[in-house]
Design brief:
Layout: H1 7-22, E1 27-29, E2 44-48, H2 53-66, E3 70-77, E4 80-86, E5 95-101, E6 104-106, E7 109-112, H3 114-119, E8 122-124, E9 127-129, H4 132-147, H5 152-164, H6 166-177, H7 179-190, H8 194-198, H9 201-215, H10 217-231, E10 238-244, H11 247-264, E11 272-279, H12 284-296, E12 299-304, E13 319-324, E14 327-332, E15 343-347, H13 351-377
Amino acid sequence: MIEFDGGEASLFLAAIFEWLDNENIKYCVERNYQGYPERLTGDLDLVVSDHQVEKASGGITTVAKRMDWFCYQDHIWKKSAYLGFGKSIFPKRFALTVELFAGARWHGLSYLPAEEVLEQRLRSGITWRPRPSHQAVITSVHHLLYNGHVPEKYRSEIHDLVAEDSESFHSVLSHSFGRKLAAGILSNIVATEWDTLAGYVQAMKFSLMQRNLLMNPVTMLLTTYMGYKAKRCLPEGVILLVYAKEADLREEFCSSLLELADRWHLFVPPVRKVIGGGVDSLDSSMLDMISRIMQSGGVAILKCNEKVDVSLPLTFPIYSINLHNNQWMMSSDKMNLSNEGVSHSGTIDSVEISVAQIWDSVLADRASRRLRSSRSDN
């Protein structure tokens, strides 16, 4: 896995923290803050107050513009925000995703309020982090409720955080899920019984909904309604068509395109998929799947044998990537937003490097088209 020079991205990250502190906007980084700003991992996940998601998002976008980082995709509502930034500086790190959350939530239902997290936050170098029990709750419960399990890469850290602050961990879980469930979750994490822990998911969901409905029925219904409306307004995703006569090369390219998108959280999560095993045409089920991914703001990567027709009403272009004679060429469809498509090419010295160049070009093109579209609307 290539490690990119994060110099300019690190400066951008530091500028975000400086702006938040100067504006007296309380925040903390959910995880992976160790080594900031020099050491960058995937994306930047921030907890902010329930009432400051929109203000913080606007300020971070202003900081990005001042430092010549463009926004290729965003989605903001009162409880969360996705901000996808890029800068055409390849081979340096050219993308940074910032996500903001009004506390820890599952489909809008709170299981750890932002105010509680921010009141007990701790300084960590140039930034702020949650107290150990809060970080453990944020990470473990998020993955249990959304994914049905805790991914292996987080398990050791969660175990250590819980061991450091177990009484607070149990107290927080008891408030949202009840003492019995909290005790079971705690004991399984301490015993590293991760498979058994996954069996608690349905009971956790039911308890969270029941407690929110009983304790805050109006707030629950209003937040659920706002979340539903926000989900209906997600930005359009992106489609990449990958063509190659060599199936192994095409497979490697598609896997690498998906890996970098997942690692840097390119485009709105969680739906990023490689589709097909070398398709010549798209049946209705494939078109339906691609349509759902586009509506979710995600990434659809299609493995193609020859030119396929993706007959969907799209605002942004489809990007075709042709692999031939150790060369790659990326081109886009012509769209109403511009009379011209875009075209880039290069030599395949390394699949990972070529894939990074392609994503760099895609993000810059999307940002440029968004900007032209907003200007024409005004």
